[in-house]
C-alpha cells in the first residue's frame, strides 16, 4: 500500500483547498470545494481526476464548487447527514462513527457540532490524517454559528483524543491572528511563545501554516486548554467548568 498524497493550495481569500490522492486506486478526493478554478488547477498540476468530494459543512466557502465538480468529473459528494439538505449535490450522507472506504484506506467520520449543527471531520487513522475544516484551526477553532459553546467543547475533545502525531488539515489560514489572540489567554506558555514567533516569520514569507498536529495543538491552542491551571488562573476562572472557560475564551476571540 503506497502512501496517500496531498496537494495543498489557497482558495478565495483565506480558505485552504486540499486534494487527497490514493496512488494505488487512482482515487482523488477534494476536501470541501471552496472554489472551482484553483481546484481544477491543482488537479491538473498533479494529473489527478477528482472522484470524490468530502464535504465538512454547508457554508458557501466549503460547497461552492460541488455541482461544477460533479458536472466535470461525475464525482461522488459525501457529506453530513445532519445538514444534508443544505449540501449541493450530496450523493452519500454520513454520520458520527461511520466508516467508508477510500481505495484500501478507511475514512472515519467524526461529527463535531458547533460551527454548524452538522459539521463533520474526516479522519484516516492508517495515514494519521485529520481534515478538521472549520472545527479546529491552528491555534483556533470555528465560530459558534449554530451550536452553543458546550457542544463545541465536546466536539474538540473528540479530536483531542486522536494520536498526537495526527496531521491536521484545517479550513482557513487564520493562524497569525489566532497566535496573537492565544498569547492574550496563555501568555506564559513558552511553547506557544516560540510557536507564535515561528508563525510570524512563516506568514511574513507567505508560507502556509497547514498542517498542524494534534499534539502541538494540545500544547498551544487555548481552545483545547480550558482545563489548564495557568489559563484558568489568568482568566480568574479557577473554579469554573471547562465548558465555561472555553465559552469565555471563544467570546474573547469573537471580540478580539
Ligand atoms: Zn464555515
Ligand atoms: Fe469556512
Key terms:
alpha/beta, Metallo-beta-lactamase, Chain A, 6-stranded mixed beta sheet, 34% helix, 23% strand, globular, binds zinc ion
- Helix and strand content put the structural class at alpha/beta
CATH superfamily: Ribonuclease Z/Hydroxyacylglutathione hydrolase-like
| CATH fold type | Metallo-beta-lactamase, Chain A
Stretches where pLDDT is under 50 for at least 5 consecutive residues are: none
**What is the mean pLDDT?**
98
CATH class, named: Alpha Beta
List the strand order in the largest sheet: 1-2-3-4-5-6
| N-to-C CA distance | 46 Å
Our estimate of the beta-strand percent is 15-25%
- Share in helix: 25-40%
Bound molecules: zinc ion, fe (iii) ion
Number of strands: 14
How does CATH name the architecture? 4-Layer Sandwich
Radius of gyration (Å)? 18 Å
Global morphology: globular
What is the domain tally?
1
Task: Spell the H/E element sequence.
Answer: EEEHEHHEEEEEEEEHEHHEHHH
Q: How many individual helices?
A: 9
**Largest sheet composition:** 6 strands, mixed
Compact overview of the structure:
The protein has helices at residues 36-46, 60-63, 66-73, 149-160, 175-185, 190-204, 214-220, 229-234, 242-254, and strands at 5-11, 15-21, 28-31, 52-54, 76-80, 92-94, 99-102, 105-111, 120-124, 129-133, 136-137, 140-141, 167-170, 212-213. By secondary structure, it is an alpha/beta fold. It has one domain (5-254): Ribonuclease Z/Hydroxyacylglutathione hydrolase-like (Metallo-beta-lactamase, Chain A, 4-Layer Sandwich), CATH 3.60.15.
Amino acid at each position: 500500500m503506497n502512501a496517500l498524497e496531498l496537494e495543498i493550495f489557497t482558495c478565495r481569500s483565506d480558505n485552504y483547498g486540499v486534494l487527497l490522492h490514493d496512488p494505488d486506486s487512482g482515487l482523488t478526493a477534494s476536501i470541501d470545494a471552496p472554489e472551482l478554478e484553483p481546484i481544477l488547477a491543482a488537479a491538473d498540476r498533479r494529473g489527478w481526476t477528482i472522484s470524490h468530494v468530502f464535504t465538512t459543512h454547508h457554508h458557501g466557502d466549503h460547497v461552492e464548487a460541488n455541482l461544477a465538480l460533479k458536472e466535470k468529473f461525475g464525482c461522488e459528494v459525501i457529506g453530513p447527514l445532519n445538514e444534508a439538505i443544505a449540501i449541493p449535490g450530496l450523493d452519500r450522507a454520513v454520520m458520527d462513527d461511520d466508516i467508508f472506504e477510500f481505495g484500501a484506506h478507511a475514512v472515519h467520520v467524526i461529527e463535531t457540532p458547533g460551527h454548524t449543527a452538522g459539521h463533520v471531520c474526516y479522519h484516516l487513522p492508517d495515514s494519521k490524517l485529520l481534515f478538521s475544516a472549520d472545527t479546529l484551526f491552528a491555534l483556533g477553532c470555528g465560530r459558534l454559528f449554530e451550536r452553543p459553546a458546550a457542544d463545541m467543547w465536546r466536539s474538540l475533545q473528540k479530536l483531542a483524543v486522536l494520536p498526537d502525531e495526527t496531521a491536521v488539515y484545517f479550513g482557513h489560514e487564520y493562524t497569525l491572528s489566532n497566535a496573537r489572540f492565544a498569547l492574550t489567554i496563555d501568555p506564559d506558555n513558552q511553547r506557544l511563545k516560540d510557536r507564535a514567533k515561528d508563525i510570524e516569520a512563516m506568514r511574513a514569507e507567505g508560507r502556509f501554516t497547514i498542517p498542524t498536529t494534534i499534539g502541538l495543538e494540545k500544547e498551544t491552542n487555548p481552545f483545547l486548554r480550558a482545563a489548564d491551571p495557568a489559563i484558568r488562573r489568568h482568566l480568574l476562572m479557577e473554579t469554573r467548568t471547562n465548558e465555561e472557560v472555553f465559552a469565555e475564551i471563544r467570546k474573547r476571540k469573537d471580540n478580539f
